[in-house]
From TrEMBL:
Signal peptide: none annotated. This is N-acetyltransferase. Residues 1-95, 7-94 form the N-acetyltransferase domain. InterPro entries: Acyl_CoA_acyltransferase, Gcn5-rel_NAT, GNAT_dom, GNAT_YJDJ. SUPFAM superfamilies: Acyl-CoA N-acyltransferases (Nat) (SSF55729). Pfam families: Acetyltransf_CG.
Amino acid sequence: MTEVKQNNDEKHGSFEAFIDGKRAGVMTYTWAGEGRFIIDHTEVEEAYNGKGVGKEMLLAAVDFARKNNKKIIPLCPFAKASFQKSEELQDVLVN
């Protein structure tokens, strides 16, 4: 099971994924004003490729955005492609 923890400060943040206590990946973001953040990088450890780690972190970011009335700007190629594939996640994108 994948556990995702969020780290956040006034300018930057990340969603880190852990599997069995080991870091499996990280998705970083930068705040772009009060109401939105830019997902700028997604990285999955090689041993966890193909296990849905990136998607789990993206879902955590979407959940955070929805609960806090924030919008997402996906600059990272992985996040951008994931949003394009999943119409049900697009409500959190900046128009």
